Amino acid sequence: MEIRGLEESLPEAPLSGSDTVYVESDHVSIGYRSKRTGIYKPACSDLNFNIKRGEFVVIIGSSGCGKTTFLEAVAGLVPVTRGEIRIGGHAIKGPGKERSLVFQSPSLFPWRNVRDNVLFSLQAQRNLTPETKARAEDLIALVGLKDVMESYPHELSGGMKQRVNLARALVTQPQLLLLDEPFGALDAQTREMMQHELVRIWQAADLGEARNAIFITHDVEEAVFLADRILVFSKSPASLAADIRVELPRPRLPAHKRSPEFLKFQDLVLSYLYQGDSNPRESAEDSR
Amino acid sequence: MSLATSDRAPSTTESDDGPSRGIVNWIRNHTKTAYGVLGVATVLILWQLTAVTGLVNVTIASDPTRVIAAEISLFSSGQIWGPLGGTAIEVGWGMLITLVVSIPLGLILGRVRALYDMTEPIINILNSVPYVLFLPVIIFWFGIGVQSRILLVIWAATLPLIINTTAGVRNLNSDYIRVARMCCAGRWTFYRSVLFPATLPYILTGIRLSIARALVGAIVAEFFLSGGGLGYFVQTATSNFDMNEAMAGILIMAVVAVVLTRLIGRLERRYTHWSQG
Ligand SMILES: Nc1ncnc2c1ncn2[C@@H]1O[C@H](COP(=O)(O)OP(=O)(O)O)[C@@H](O)[C@H]1O
Ligand SMILES: [Mg+2]
Question: Which one of A192, B62, B221, B246 has the fewest CB atoms closer than 10 angstroms to its CB?
Fold first, then answer.
């Protein structure tokens, strides 16, 4: 499949959001220079696509292909080597208040209880008011942690920690939510529940009209369940292998994962994911 | 920001079977402490026995009952408050200045690579030279007043605290830095609300070492500078052959050291419970 320059594909109507471009990845290449050898190793090469206002985009790719690198570049934590990432038309210079990142590991502060961990992002942005504090408590309740508000991270399960992580990211009402395999370390059951919760929160949380998300995963089912649009990254260094619009109705329920349409998208994603392999996976069921 | 406030006091099982049953239960729950008390009691009894049987000369070695008697007279006459207050002022000011200077300095040295590389060799060399050796130089520069004694306390106490704080910062989980950056935390918020609490376990360990060295520093300074304090008190008592008073002074020092160590232990349990497991 050819890489589609999204600038040309504007006529295609998104399922949600408007036609305004929000995130632009303009021929972006990112790499690391080894401190030991000084050799430059590319992690992302020539990523070129746009994300529209309101889209829930899932990036999928095999492990080590450069997904985290790209997401952290959007977050402003990793500098871009070539090209430019723009948000709302402005080139990224570093982290910004309009963006939040849910880290792959929960990375909560162990010396703060659940409430204070969530309040940290507000505190850091000097936005601690009775109003935002109340919002934090609502959000903690929304992610189902009302009863452990005073507990410390070491007293929580992995799933609970990721909920705190999510609440900490959401409480600043970001325009763009970045999630790096947030459920990757969870067991299958918890993971399924959290995906459902995320969809629910995504729809329920008071995030203003505009809410963009970039969600990273290596799990095909998770990708199809969550996405308005899936970007498939090739093996390292990551380039855009496919750009798939998931035309499944919302609200999506876990039961839909067994539906033929769902499986069709899953197979489509899989076929692109294994495209670069010498022994590509057959997508036999695709035709059914 | 709120730190932990869960106090985990050991449960003293009160039973209603009378006091003897209570003591038995207490011993069962505190075997370690009970053995410690037993050890101290054994030493005291042996000491008393050697004195009573005339095995050692009481005027040279004193004995526990005489020490207690001396203690009572020192406190009832108020004679001890001068020396105790003298040492308290040296250690108090010395530790206060040490804390105010060393903790921020350690945090900054741990964060700024160039400063760390520049200061690390110097700090290690200075730390390996016995600090008492600097006392003549301090006296030469600052005279024999209280300021010299406080300076020696600071000199004794500051390096372990700087070294521990810096080590803590350098061990900082890089995830915390990324979270702080992502949340757009300013420098002050980062230092106060991320770096300081994350490093607190190391800082408290440093303070524990610092206090021990501050006490030694104060006593040594008093030996040399003869300006008062418990060290001077014990020295004077010994030269007057008043071993009861000398021993009483040492006992007070021991109590002060234990109380301060206990205090740090409490702070550790209160504020760094999250790092223990
Ligand atoms: N801080 C770093 N320094 C050097 N190389 C890195 C660094 N982070 C990631 N890489 C390299 O970049 C590549 C992509 O990594 P990453 O973006 O974490 O992949 P993914 O998230 O898709 O698993 C890997 O080969 C990895 O070794
Ligand atoms: Mg990753």
Answer: A192
For an interface test with A, give the residue of B1, B179, B196 to mutate (most A CBs within 10 A): B179
**CB-based contact A109:B194 (threshold 8 Å):** yes
Task: Check pocket membership of A45 for ligand 1, CB cut-off 6 A.
Answer: no
Q: What is the CATH superfamily name and number for domain A22-274?
A: P-loop containing nucleotide triphosphate hydrolases (3.40.50.300)
Residue B185, chain A, CB below 8 Å: the answer is: yes
**Residue A101's beta-bridge partner residues?**
A178
- The pTM (predicted TM-score) of the whole model is 0.83
Query: CA–CA separation, A141 vs A143, rounded Å?
Result: 5
Among protein residues, the one whose CA lies closest to atom 9 of ligand 1? A69
Tally C-beta pairs within 8 A across A and B. Answer: 69
pLDDT band at B25 (very low <50, low <70, confident <90, very high): confident
Residues sharing a CB contact under 8 Å with residue B149, sequence separation 6 or more, in sequence order: B90, B218, B221, B222, B225, B227, B229
Beta-carbon separation of A111 and B4 below 8 A: yes
**All structural domains of chain B with their residue ranges:** 32-74, 76-275
Domain ranges within chain A, ordered by starting residue: 22-274
Say which of B178, B186, B274 has its CB closest to residue A110: B274
Q: Please state, in angstroms and as integers, the Cα–Cα distance from residue B234 to each residue in A147, A158, A250, B149, B215, following that order.
A: 58, 59, 83, 17, 14
Q: Is B262 on the interface with A (CB under 8 A)?
A: no
Do B3 and A111 lie within an 8 Å CB cutoff?
Answer: yes
pLDDT tens digits, one per residue of B200-233: 999 999 999 999 999 999 999 999 887 789 999 9
CB A58 within 8 Å of CB A245: no
What stretches of B205-273 adopt beta strand conformation (E)? none
**Residues B187-212: what's their mean pLDDT?**
96
Q: For atom 26 of ligand 1, which residue has the closest CA?
A: A64
Q: Which pLDDT tens digit goes with each residue over A70-100?
A: 999 999 999 999 999 999 999 999 999 999 9
Topology (CATH level 3) of domain B76-275: MetI-like fold (1.10.3720)
> Token digits for A225?
């369940």
CA distances from A222 to A199, A215, A257 (A): 11, 10, 9
Cβ contact A124–B189 (<8 Å): yes
- Give pLDDT < 50 ranges for chain A: 1-17, 278-288
User: Does ipTM exceed 0.95?
Assistant: no
Decide: A69 and A78 in contact? Cβ < 8 Å: yes
On average, the pLDDT of chain B sits at: 90
